[in-house]
Amino acid sequence: MPRRLAPKIILALALIVLIVKSVALYVNDRNQEARLLESMTLGADQLSRAIAAATWQMMLADRREAAYSVMQTIALKQGIDRIRMFNKDGELMFSTVAGEPTQVDKRAEVCTPCHASTPPLVKVDPANRARAFREPDGHRSLAMITPIYNEPSCAEAPCHAHPASLKVLGVLDLQTNLSPVDQEIKSLRVRTLLLSLTEVGLIGVFIVFFTRRFVDEPIRELIRETDAISDMQLDRPVKIESSEELAELAHSFDVMRVRLKDAIAQNAEFTHQLESKVQERTSQLELAQQKLIQSDRMASLGQLAASVAHEINNPISGVLNLSMLMQRIVKEDGIPRGRIAEFRRYLSQVSGETARVGRIVSDLLSFSRRSRPQRAPADLNAIVQTTVSLVAHKLQLGGVAVELHLAPDLPRVRCDASQIRQVVMNLLLNAAEAIKGEGRVTAVTRCPAGGNRAILEVRDTGTGIPPDLIGRIFDPFFTTKEEGKGVGLGLAVVYGIVEAHGGEIEVESRVGVGSTFRVGLPLAGEEPPPSQATPDQNGNGR
Ligand SMILES: Nc1ncnc2c1ncn2[C@@H]1O[C@H](COP(=O)(O)OP(=O)(O)O)[C@@H](O)[C@H]1O
Ligand SMILES: [Mg+2]
């Protein structure tokens, strides 16, 4: 069974036409044959009567030979196969064909129309007196039995007078060849068949044309149009006018198309508005984040100030003492010979202490410098060392030891060094603040083999973070510290900076054991720097 609608309709209609046409053909054929046989039967009956009438006078005069000769002539002229005459006892009186059996059995088929009942029927209509049958050579014949009735003239004739009580004197059996009729039926059948085939062909062509024109083509057109809609070609109107239903369907699709188009336009407009809103908000957020970073930097700076003051105070008072010592060594005539070495030592201590002051100041400057974010390959180890050097002293005073485990061949990371310094600083200060009493803060750098990240870890042996708070520590203004000590911005800023660098930060913590903050930063994707730390960054972590 085809799956498409048009072939289905065509097939169904063609089947119906074929069935109806075949039944009509069969009934018509049967009818025609019956009509022809009927008219043949009537003809045979008339002929039989004509023969009886033509020979009546001769039979009355008992001129049998002359009567037989008339029958012979009629048989010859009319193309009749055989004319026979039987008397009432079934004896053959005459036949146009020689060598016929002289006696027939009244039970024979030919006699049954009248002799089936007792007494035999006298009047039987022509249709029942005729019978069609097939001869041994295959052709069909029609035989007609016509009774010869006893008439007053017969009963009174002098020759062989029949008693008046006798109704039927004998029968005339006329047999004609049905071959011409069969031939006629055959050719008629062929003609009707041809005609019907032509009709079926024409109807078929019409069905195909009609189905294609009014069903298949409009449906295909509709499918094309709806496909176009599903491909989002929404400018082409859907219009089909082959039939009312399809036009309605097409109209519904068209309404859908227009609504879809409008909805998409509205959506696009909405998306556009949303995008510009998001853009606006993003730039506002960026601004806020910059401000946050800056304010956090200032807060850290405040914390630093005390530590730095102390850091600078020590070497400065050292220098003061040394200069007083040196002043005492120097006499009117210069430095006494024996004390030159001592004087030199003091001098070198002065330059050492001043260099330390200079370093602290430069570190402080690099931390507080308000710079635009600049991404460049940077040495993470150096950044960690610089930052640690700024706070180490203060931490150590508070009983917190600082340890550095820096990977010697750490590849460079792409970052804004001043921002990463801020990250390290915040993590270090948080770690130190989490330690009550004695403890240890460890800064670790490493680069897992095959990874594209440099890892910085800041571990402490502090109080740890309770699990219910760990999810909130990166929130701005979340702090567990008493007022005046913490503002809760440090980790929010750390998170923002790491995020902006395309890195990630995670925390592991156990209450009473300590915490580890792990920061991953993308590598700069170049060869690692030849030496680890510049002289200026050495010797920290005290
Ligand atoms: N190393 C750490 N150990 C324990 N708790 C920490 C640590 N670092 C941060 N925290 C917790 O996270 C909170 C938020 O830290 P932060 O954002 O730096 O703000 P602040 O230090 O001003 O409180 C801190 O108040 C503290 O409770
Ligand atoms: Mg903090």
Structural description of this entry:
Among the domains are: 5-185, PAS domain (Beta-Lactamase), CATH 3.30.450.20; 374-542, Histidine kinase-like ATPase, C-terminal domain (Heat Shock Protein 90). It starts with a helix and ends in a 20-residue tail after the last strand. The protein contains twelve helices and twelve strands. The chain is rod-shaped. With 542 residues, it is an alpha+beta fold. 22% of the residues are buried. The chain binds adenosine-5'-diphosphate and magnesium ion (MG). Residues 426, 429-430, 486, 490 line the site of magnesium ion.
Q: Secondary-structure blueprint of this entry?
A:
Blueprint: H1 5-60, H2 64-78, E1 80-87, E2 92-95, H3 112-115, H4 126-129, E3 130-134, E4 140-149, H5 152-156, E5 168-177, H6 179-230, H7 244-329, H8 340-368, E6 376-378, H9 380-397, E7 400-406, E8 413-415, H10 417-434, E9 439-446, E10 453-460, H11 467-470, H12 490-500, E11 504-510, E12 514-522
Parallel strand pairs: 7-9
Antiparallel strand pairs: 1-2, 1-5, 3-4, 4-5, 6-8, 9-10, 10-12, 11-12
Helix pairs in contact: 1-2, 1-6, 6-7, 7-8, 7-9, 7-12, 8-9, 9-10, 10-12
This protein binds adenosine-5'-diphosphate and magnesium ion (MG).
Adenosine-5'-diphosphate binds next to helix 10 and helix 12.
Task: Please compute the radius of gyration using only Cα atoms.
Answer: 66 Å
Across the major sheet, the strand order is: 2-1-5-4-3
The CATH topology of the domain at 5-185 is what?
Beta-Lactamase
**So what's the CATH class of the domain at 5-185?**
Alpha Beta
What percent of residues adopt helix (DSSP H or I)? 55-70%
Give the number of DSSP strands. 12
Order of helices and strands: HHEEHHEEHEHHHEHEEHEEHHEE
